[in-house]
């Protein structure tokens, strides 16, 4: 895999070559040599970079939705943004979170399996204090939640999962549901320790309190959606949706377009002098016979053949034939 150098590394490399500390020929020889990189099978990379970028876009939208939701619920300044999107073994994720934290275990049908929203205790208790009428400051010490506090938190984070479904709606229609709330990570075993999970970390600020919210999505749960997380799928889906919208708009405009519809009883050729001498009561003889069908034109094209008559006291025509190919008017 090609490594990308930062601008500082490029400047340092150029300076070393210019000063003679490093030889360009040695660099070429080193590049020609076979490079071996170690690979840890316990830390398998199951998500491609393309899929990680898609997960980032989805959860940046989720962060905006959570910001709006918690700002309305807590009635204070809330700022949530995506800090990082990583893939790591589930065991490593468990070791990285505090020994006492807020773990919201949930499912999202039609996906099979459990996912976790881990909320740093400072953030969770600040939310709780704000909901109970306090200033929303971080607690001095952490303790077990009472039954009432547990119910309040379950309701708050259960509603936050509705925004999770909203963020994923362009990929799949989900129905997330909070199963239970846990505080000890050791009691939460949703997948095997070596299973790869995607961890989306949200940097969260509520008033003056800061902390992290981590979303743990196991690869085994997202596996049915892996194809949909590619950029190619997103671009083709967006193009298809755009084409459908354009088609609907065009069809709607065509339906509203007005066309002249003319039922022609017949034609006749007269001289200019006869035309100038026409008076009331004069009869003009048409070239068409009474038993012939009259032509119905749309614009300049003959589209139908019809019979003249009346309907509810008004002059009307009854369509009897639809011409498969439009007939050009001879005139």
Brief summary of the model shown:
It contains 9 helices and 10 strands. It has 331 residues and is of the alpha+beta class.
- The portion of residues assigned to helices is 25-40%
| Strand-pairing-aware structural class | alpha+beta
Helix and strand succession?
Answer: HHHEHEEHHEEEHHEHEEE
CATH class of the largest domain: Alpha Beta
Q: N- to C-terminal separation?
A: 73 Å
Shape: elongated
- Main sheet: which strands, in order across? 1-5-6-3-2-4
Major β-sheet profile: 6 strands, antiparallel
- The CATH superfamily of the largest domain appears as CheC-like
The count of DSSP E runs of length 2 or more, i.e. the number of strands, is 10
In total, the number of domains comes to 3
CATH topology of the largest domain: Chemotaxis protein chec
> Spans of 5+ residues with little confidence (pLDDT < 50)?
none
Membrane topology: Peripheral membrane protein
Subcellular location: Bacterial flagellum basal body; Cell membrane
Organism: Aneurinibacillus thermoaerophilus
Family: Belongs to the FliM family.
């Amino acid at each position: 895999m090609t490594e990308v150098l930062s601008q500082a590394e490029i400047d340092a490399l150029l300076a070393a070559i210019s000063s003679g500390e490093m030889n360009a020929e040695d660099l070429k020889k080193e590049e020609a040599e076979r490079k071996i990189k170690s690979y840890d099978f316990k830390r398998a990379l199951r998500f491609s970079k393309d899929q990680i970028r898609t997960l980032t876009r989805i959860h940046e939208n989720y962060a905006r939705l959570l910001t709006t939701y918690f700002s309305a619920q807590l009635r204070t300044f809330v700022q949530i943004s995506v800090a990082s999107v990583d893939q790591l073994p589930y065991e490593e994720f468990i070791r990285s979170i505090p020994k006492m934290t807020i773990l919201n275990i949930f499912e999202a049908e039609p996906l099979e399996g459990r996912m976790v929203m881990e909320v740093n205790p400072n953030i969770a208790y600040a939310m709780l204090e704000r909901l109970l009428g306090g200033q929303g400051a971080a607690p001095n010490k952490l303790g077990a939640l009472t039954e009432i506090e547990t119910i309040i938190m379950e309701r708050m984070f259960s509603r936050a999962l509705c925004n999770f479904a909203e963020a994923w709606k362009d990929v799949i229609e989900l129905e997330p549901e909070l199963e239970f709330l846990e505080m000890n990570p050791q009691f939460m075993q949703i997948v095997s320790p070596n299973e790869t999970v995607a961890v989306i970390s949200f940097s969260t600020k509520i008033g003056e309190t800061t902390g992290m919210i981590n979303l743990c999505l196991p690869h085994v749960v997202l596996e049915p959606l892996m194809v949909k997380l590619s950029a190619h799928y997103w671009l083709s889906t967006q193009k298809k949706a755009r084409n459908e919208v354009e088609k609907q708009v065009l069809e709607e405009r065509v339906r509203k377009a007005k066309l002249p519809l003319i039922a022609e009883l017949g034609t006749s050729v007269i001289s200019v002098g006869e035309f100038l001498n026409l008076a009331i009561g004069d009869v003009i003889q048409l070239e068409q016979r009474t038993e012939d069908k009259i032509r119905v034109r749309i614009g300049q094209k003959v589209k139908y053949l019809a019979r003249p008559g009346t309907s509810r006291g008004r002059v009307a025509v009854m369509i009897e034939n639809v011409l498969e190919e439009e007939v050009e008017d001879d005139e």
